[in-house]
Write a structure and sequence with these properties.
four-stranded antiparallel sheet, flat, alpha+beta, 11% strand
Length: 313
Amino acid sequence: MEATMTRTEPRPLPRPAMTPPPAPPLPPLPPVDAVIQQWPAVATARRRLDAVRDVTGRAATLAGAAAAAAGLVTDATGAALLADAALTGAGLATLRLWRPDGHQKATASVLYLMPGTGLAALLLAERLVTGIHWGEALALTAWTAATWILRPARLARRMMSPPPPPAPTPAPAPAAVDGHPVARWWAQNVALDGGAAPGTVLEEIEQTGTASMRAVIRSAATGHPVPDISIRRLSALMDIPEEEIGIGPVPGRGAGLRRLTIGTADQHQDPATVWAQRIAPAAMPGAVLTGVRVGRPGDPAAGEAAPDPEARS
């Protein structure tokens, strides 16, 4: 008896499928600024229509309150019920016309129906209950106040169509800058946005001495006060000590003007004082100036106008 043995080679295990590496993330898209063209005629028409709707809603609220108040003492509520149903149905139809379905449309419809259905319920209660009842009067007061203040129908309109853009306001005309070099420097370095005195103009510039001046700071916007000006910032801009810069009110004028003073004004002195304070102590100590001749030498008119100067020690 012979036994035959067969050797079976082991089968190789299947290799797992190679998973491709994840794709790199896409770069973010750059922001796009899209400007939607606004037609002035359409915007104006929308604003006028919104104003008409506003007035119509107020008038309908007053008319409904008057009809409900009349229903407290009379039974003539049928005409008011028909008018309420007609106006509410017509308004709801225009609200839902050509609007896509969704939660916003359903919510706006419920909001729009609230004033009309509330008034209809109040009128039906007045028709069923004879005589004046305090509950009806209280319900009428609550309905009138809630409709006048909350205005659910207007909110529904705003949900379905945003309010029209406000009317464009013309940009304020730039303030005229004085031709003085100091005024131009003020406009370029101090009155600009973010400067020490934004929105101001420097006027009435007057030099009061060799190293001093004064001027008036005016607000460029009519009816607005001059903003608070930091003397430290002005000192840094002008490279002038802080104690030599002063800002105060203009006598007899409002807050739209401020007085700016820089340095100490030179005092007006007559020749005798100048001689005594500046010349005599250094050149001729003890000398006193007693007279001044004005004119040219040899001019007889000048000699008659003033006596000859004399100095005495």
